[in-house]
Amino acid sequence: MSFYHDFSFIQMEGPTLNTSLASNISNGQTTSRPKEIVTSCGWCDWRPRWLQRFNSQRWLLAAISSAACMTLMIEDGFTNSAITSIERRFQLRSQDIGTILSIYEFTVIISIIPVTYFGGRGNKPRWISIGCFVVGVASLLFALPHFTTERYAYFSEKGNEQATCHLHEANSSSTSSVDSCRRNGKSISLLSRYIILFGAAKVIAGIGAPPQGSLGVVFIDESITTKQNGMYLSTYLTMGTFGSAIGYILAGIFLNIYTDIDMPPGMTASPSDPGWVGAWWLGFVIAGFVIIALSIPIGLFPRELPKTARIRAEKPVESHKNSGLGEGGQTPRQPQSEAPRLVQEIRGVLEILKHLAINPTYVLTVCSTVPDVLLINSFAAFLPKLLENQFMVTSSTATIITGIAVIPGSVFGTFLGGWVMRRRKLKVPGLIKLAILGSTIETIAFLCVLMHCPQTQIAGVTTAYDSGNGSTLLNLTSSCNIACSCSADKFKPVCLEESGLSFFSPCHAGCSQDFENGTYGGCSCSPGMSFGIPSTVRHGKCSTPCNLQPAFIFMMNVVLVAIFMSKVPLMNIVLRCVAEHERAVALGMNSVVARTLGSIPGPILFGAIIDSTCLRWQETCGERGACWLYNNKSLSWKLTTLSLVCNVLTVLFYALALRFYEPASQGESSTDNRDVPETETCLNERNT
Asked: In the UniProt record, does the keyword Transmembrane occur (predicted)?
């Protein structure tokens, strides 16, 4: 009830409250009781004196940044890291996981405009607080399927007895496979229904996330001076990135823990086993409770901090001349109307959208975010997978490396962008130039995607069994294992160390003996068997010499420095080139366009490119599953092409935004930020 009461008050008096309060302060007048109500920290009538020590810009930044940290930890780190485990545990396809992620993006798009519009006119801390609570509930709901299913059965009933070659058992093997499909069909169907619960959790998260992203940035920007802007927003962005990175690292640790925590007696399994499922749910539970707890102190902040009105009165106006400012750079008063309030609100939104649409700098800046978001978000989601396949590391190791690699480049890039902004006192043209510089560096550094380790040679997949005799036939079945009735349902690679050749499984290597220590003997597909020389193979693919991983991680950090060096000015360009009362909607529309044209199709396009390089698919009961092996070289070239196209488009849109920028004060003024007096921009003219 308290929330809706505050909301009604703001809708009646919100359009004139800030202007009148700023005017009173500038004229030396005081408004003691209204100011105490608006700017004191607390809830309803409970506003103790000791609580006011936290009513400052620094504590506000700490609270909202912590919420952003936890949100990105959940939605980026934990979600992206849990994809493989969820697929295995609940028998879901990658397409199903993609649907779940798309549900989140669509929900954000639908909810972000009303949330940012009404929240921008209302009590922003209350909206952010409720958003944190909703995200926490969604996180707990996402982990719920783990607690409502039976314990995970890691091994099949037959264990590993079909791993080796069993001669003359083709018919019995085929019958067993059919029976297994019939027996497990019902249980697979029941598990796959949990996609509904996962989707519902992402719908709730998509409703709770927008207040933190858009309203949080606007509230911080309103509460700080222009001089503080760079470092405060840099800190906010850094905390979000830090949360994402910590999410990857913690997820990598949790994935080394068995999904049910304790293993059944007699089970021996490790994260390197193909069917391993880690404790993917643990991070969602912990983070869910933490962000719910954070929602309480955030909700205690006032609608405005004590110094906000004075800061607003002293800030220069840098919005484009086509923004929705009135004469003198002031927010125009809305005409009185007898229309219902909902109709008035819709008209208000449409009026703001009209001003944004005719603001070329804003439109072109938003366009620049689309290819950038498409590329960055896709790489962020699939980077652990790329490390795993291109540099031959385990899934948990790739996840931890991703988290560690993200921190240095993103933190340094964010603070570098903020430092340059503060040092050079950049206005909109200077900010655009800084963004162009960062995007250019990113374009060059992204060529590191061409790095990859040599392709693993697997008989029947990447090389022929008799390649030494000039054969080029790629088929898992060869004369040396044709009588073994080998199943291709599971990928259990083994390595013949003498030749450096890997086989799809011990059975495909023709091995008839299992020494139960990770080695197999009597392998008929070994070249030595033709001379009567016994041979053994060991579990796992043969390793190939490759020292490119450190260089790749270093170059990815350069990419991250460039990305985040551009991210700080990008946010400031959007905030500064529009009128103050349009900022929340401007950020919201930027997010809508970026998500609609970038975040949603990006992972789908990225996944399609990766799938197009697949050399061997999993097929179970006639259905295609995940890809077991990719063409490293083809994958590198295709991803490099995508990165070049996206980065060139980003630089082009930034250049056009700079070309068409005209400050509201003088349409003919120089685009050089140092030629535009700080106190004159957008204050002397208004074209309507």
From this structure: yes
